[in-house]
Amino acid sequence: MAGVSFRNVTKVFGKDVKAVNNLTLDIRDQEFMVLVGPSGCGKTTALRMVAGLEEATEGDILIGDVRVNDVPPKDRDIAMVFQNYALYPHMNVYDNIAFGLRLRELKGFVWQLTHWNEAREIKKDIDRRVRETAAMLGIEGYLNRRPKELSGGQRQRVALGRAIVRKPKVFLMDEPLSNLDAKLRVQTRAELIRLHRSLGITTIYVTHDQVEAMTMGQRIAIMRDGVLQQCDKPEVVYQKPANRFVAGFIGSPPMNFLEAKLVEEGGQVWVDAGEFRFPVVGNGAARDAVGKDVLMGIRPESIFDASLESHVKPTDFNTFVAKVDVLEPLGHEYVAYLKCGKHNLLASIETGTKIAIDQEARFVVNLEQVHIFDKETEVAIR
Ligand code: ATP
Question: Is residue 340 part of a domain?
């Protein structure tokens, strides 16, 4: 097994499409790393460079301690799982899983005739590995079926089986769940996490879905326009986003951004949005930025109905009054669209709420979770 490293890797397509721009990222041995970002941010290109399907224009790619830029894909000891399974339609499940192993280990027909005993042992070993893998994925009952006789979820498991059976150094997965329906996606997500835990194979997983990234990744790397924005554990990326882009990309409904200014009064630094202002807590850097135009970031789940019991007690310093414009019931909570002067905010409000459309209500904010971004550079001030 091995880690994977990108060292100042850039990929340019044609004359000037910089799909990946100076990417430096270390994926640890046995880690499950998710590359996430909107369409076109370069995540697939980064993955394909590890696979050897694209050549890096600049920089080094390492698998373990070995620079693999010039190593052909078949010698990199990686296995890739794609969105569109890419199974052989004319082969049954057994043969689909066994195919790569046979190709690799049974060195050709003539060799098998001249080394009959050796070939028989290898075939036995392949059979054992295929059956073990199928059992691990719960598809042992379908080994004689062709791909067209399987559901999407079962096909995806066969594709995984084909990758797993080889016990590669690294798994590369490119949106492997996006063809599955929502329920199956959640289920397969959990299965993949379990599988990773038991096999412990370094995995790089590409998705545009932030929920998938947050739930699966031990660490997640967020990319935008080919540039890595932040790489950290999911909870750190959520609680301490490095910039406005990451803050807005991670979390649903998305974070609210309000134009504001940092001011100082009576020794206290405030983030002032005009209609309301909050004292800045635990943020040394804000004091150095007093006078600056900023964006105040508040997640919808950091806003509570002040008339309901919550762990954040309303005071004179953490509340604001707003009119409820729209109330979307989600079952376990409401998404409330609030208007407060020039500001529009989304809030996730508990179902016990008495707030009503077109009525004003008082809301309380968890001040520990108020983010501040430089308006110009969009970098977090903290
Ligand atoms: P998606 O989620 O839509 O697949 P992505 O984040 O994986 O997006 P990439 O497929 O890596 O993004 O593409 C990054 C950029 O490189 C895009 O602007 C894309 O148009 C461009 N690109 C990708 N492959 C090629 C290619 N073979 N030739 C030219 N440009 C390409």
Answer: yes
